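Entry 14. Structure prediction run on the chain below.
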Amino acid sequence: MTEPGTATSTDPTHPQEQGATAYSWYVLSILVLVYVLNFVDRQILSILANDIKKDLSLTDADLGFLYGTAFAVFYSLFGIPLGRLADSWHRVRLMSAGLALWSLMTAVSGLSRTGGQLTAARIGVGVGEATASPAAYSLISDYFPQRLRATALSIYSSGLFLGGGLSLLVGGLIVEQWNAAYPAGGPFGLVGWQAAFMAVGLPGVLLALLVATLREPVRGAIDGLPTPSVERPFKGFFAELVTVIPPLTLIGAARRGPMALIANVAVALVIAGGVYVLTMLLGRTTRLQWIFVGVGLYAVYSWASALRARDLPTFRLIWGTPAFLCTTLGYGMVAFTSYATSYWAAPYAERVFAIAKGDLGWFIGAPGALAGFLGVIIGGRIADHLYKRHSAGRIMVTLFGLIAPIVPMVIAFRTDSFATFVAMLFVAQTMSSSALGGAAATSQSLVLPRMRGTATATFFLATTLVGLALGPFMAGYVSATNGDDLSLGVLSTLAAAPIGLVLLIVAIRSVPGALASLDQRARAAGETLA
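Output returned:
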């Protein structure tokens, strides 16, 4: 006899005979490299922020919008149909095409002459990068057994932190050397920050060719649930576009009947009203921010409604499962603060401590990469260890990653000492990064193999629409409205911690029951299991 919710060797989610092959680890190493480049291309805006602000006449709120919202909303929207495509098509090909796209759009960012042009390029980067994690999470789940999955996902996620740190190192060096060589502007009038975008973007096209050589595993075989191939995978992808991309969402709603269309329009009007109110309260300069967020929320509602009508089992196991929602939104609160911190740390140090860009890469980028790597790997290992003792053990690590960084963050952004800032930032980033592996693995465990790409897209809604689209912008907005006080701006994002605390406590209480009843709830929703 064991206590309810305790993982045992008879648990079907713990296949003891399965192991990871040498090729599995090779695939994982390539996926980590892809994720490193993913975050180099995404995070390089941090080291370039002050130069872009000056050259394009932007505010801190604009910079938060460019880094977070402009990227995150389209990353989220296209992540949904691309997640569906990852569940039905060749995941290796999907990732290769996406890598080539976002790399080219990063290079195009270097041609920007206005904030609007840079916004458009960032949207393109977001669309391309939306292919990466749905495909990677699904591939990893088919290359690694359940008992190693949090570890494998944590290793993959280390690319986030390695790429973020590398972006500061590479970006800082390129800007300094380019501006030293071409003080009045280089070929075609390009300045340092524009050259940096091009330098980190173009190598991704070559990496896409290597990714294309990876083997596609049999979906679900490692869990004893092999899933047959979908005959017309792009049919589902294009059908998903109609459910999530405005204004095509009106067509999708109309296909489900008059009541669905009326409900869809009503929700759109309510969201539009919310956008108007927020714009009036916070100023017209924030209008684009709230329009983007409103479009994202409306698209998510449209997609969830369509998913319920089309695929009730998937809807029930994702949107109808409190354990899943609380896990993803709880981690979203971690992301809310950590995205703001990782983005604004370099511009803050450059302004407050007058540190040169090249030095920022070594003092903030390198320690940040090490902190993230250590945190996510150790956190993933501890999460897997705790999972053997209790089904909600992984969420306990996510809760730690939410609460533990608060004190070191406050010290970092209040100290007058650069050394103390770097040390406390390292501690805070190590702790916050420990949260990811356990939350990601839990989200994968709460659905069936065929649903993992869609579950990953939903998981990343929390880290993008909640964390990335709101956290960096909030920090920038608070800074811009308080005399460019980035310290106050970054620390204001700690307001997300109490919300995350409640969500993760609920997750800890509900995950064991949700895991135990997974097959039963799937069958009740109409799923046919072998």
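The radius of gyration is 22 Å.
Filed with the rest of this week's runs.
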